[in-house]
Amino acid sequence: MKGEDRTGQEPEEAERYRLEAGIAAPQEMLLTPPAGIALPPGVQEELQRLQELTFSDMAALAWISDGSGEQGTGPYVWASLLGSRSERVQRMSFRRGSPGLAGTALRLGRYVTAEPQGIRDFARECPVMLAEKLQTALALPVNGKETAAGVLLLGSRSGRLYGPEEIRHAQSGAQRIF
């Protein structure tokens, strides 16, 4: 129904659930894309939608810095952020295969989650997770015509795990971005 969130609750009930569960409400720290980067239309709206659907504290999109949205030589930069608490993230960049969640998602070409009991401890090696104090996160490539044009990152400071439903929402959102 219109006006309901993913739990089928009205917005007021969803807010009460967030407060009782200790989940932060989505925050509105918007980042203007760096010079030379043209993001697809509707990116901010899609990030906000995903942040709400997955009860994430942070939603971010990294885009290849040459602005082509295709295979380029430039690094990926965080071009759009919602719910960020650290200005350092805006200055961070990474390449395909870099240590950390986003670089690993690009290298593997699929989603990657960071959880407290995970095999790899992304929380210690991922600069974004460190800067934002994220306990858990989900990253997945945003595919362009030939290769990954960007990376979608959703994160939780409270340690909320990303299950199959949240992963499906993120995958659908990544497809809608490009």
From TrEMBL:
Pfam families: GAF (PF01590). It comes from the Bacteria. Residues 44-176 form the GAF domain. It comes from Paenibacillus filicis. Gene3D superfamilies: 3.30.450.40. This is GAF domain-containing protein.
